Amino acid sequence: MDRFFDKVKRAETPFYRRVKKLARTFMAPSVPRLPKFLRSPLRFLYEMHFVVIMAWHLFWNLVYRYPLFQARCTSIGQNVSIDRMPFVTGPVQIQIGDNVWMGGDISIASGRILDSPHLIIGDHAEVSWGVKIAVNREIIIEEYARISWNCSISDSDGHPRQADLRAKNVPVFPRDIRPVRICKYAWIGNGSYIMKGVTVGEGAVIGANSVVISDVPPYSLALGNPAEVVMRNYGKPSKTSNPE
What we know:
Blueprint (H helix, E strand, L loop, with lengths): L1 H9 L3 H14 L8 H37 L2 E2 L4 E2 L4 E3 L3 E4 L4 E2 L4 E3 L8 E4 L4 E2 L4 E3 L3 E4 L4 E2 L4 E3 L8 H5 L12 E3 L4 E2 L4 E2 L4 E2 L4 E2 L4 E2 L7 E5 L2 E6 L12
Parallel strand pairs: 1-4, 2-5, 3-6, 4-7, 5-8, 6-9, 7-10, 8-11, 9-12, 10-13, 11-14, 12-15, 13-16, 14-17, 15-18, 17-19
Antiparallel strand pairs: 19-20
Helix pairs in contact: 1-2
């Protein structure tokens, strides 16, 4: 069978060229153009497809996901919105403020190295889709901070530095677990990693796909691997609430 597929892929003879062409037709069929009279009703069905999906997820959030997640949290504020139920494992104590938004596919994990690790999410903060949070001591996301999609935040490496101890699956030492704080108004760009012991200052911006291993000053722009501050006095609050 493998030899047959190899010959089809190489199209060594007219027969195998015809088989390869036929296979391409089945693998990537062309879509016929729609008659004009079908465009409007099918466009309506297209929109309704997503309306139904969104309505179903909204209903499921209200009657199932949100009550279960609320029960898992130590405290939760008013007007908290979740797109999907976060996956939580370990003894982490979760405190969520008011008007917080959380996307889907969020993972919150903690080991059992220290008692009662804390994840605190302040008022009006946003944690987007695909964010992974590993908390073994304390991670604080202050009010109005925003974590973009596919970011990772961790207050430990998850293992000892010593190679022989890693091979023996020895847990990380408590002294190597250091809290993380993302201060208010900070923005963490998509795909970034915030590592143990880091404080991202008030209003600071972390560029996409950065790896932050040291503190970032307030109102500065940092990016890269490892992230470096490339601009200070960046994004300070406007002097008027309605700039023109």
